[in-house]
Amino acid sequence: MTYTLVAPARTSTARLGVLLCGVAAGPLFLAAGAVQGLTREGFDFGRNALSQLALGEAGWVQTLNFLVVGALLLACAAGLHRNLGGRRGGPVLVGVFGLSFWAAAAFPADAGAGFPAGAPDAAVMTGAGAAHMAAGMIGYLALCAAFFVLARPLADRGHRTWAVASRVVPVVVFAGFLASAASVLAFTAGAALGLLWLSAVTYRLAGSPVTN
Which residues cross the membrane (predicted)? Predict the structure, then answer.
């Protein structure tokens, strides 16, 4: 009967592995964006969104960043589904967030605000640009909703401070979106907070007892 000791260990390791994909996703996306923003000519964090890094000759790096992070988020969604004993709400919303990164890769943002180098200040809305904006809005709204849903299992496992924070963070993230028309930096800060909080919540849940 000793064979029964092997399968649970492997299952636990697999669950932890896919959850750690979610822990890595946000920091990876932001680190890759920061390095590109500091090294790409004409990019200004105060005027340009990280999505615009997918434009220009070196834009393939940011496109790859979108694709990889989207895959990590989808793996995270699968891991959360198992970790939460089959609950679908939060994991499905995180999955939608992951798919929004793939959509962002397929439909690049519009040039503007001087980036890529030589682009005019005023951006001209294209079909791809509109699709990119829609994907981002849907994705981050799904992420905000996911935080509210994930607050429940956090509270159930005794992480009440985390649960409260998971109801406050999406309000701040959404405020960043509302302020995006006036400040690109506010949008970037709100999006970054959402990514990092997802990493933190995933890490917290990964360290909690699995319910099935």
Answer: 16-39, 59-80, 92-109, 129-150, 171-198
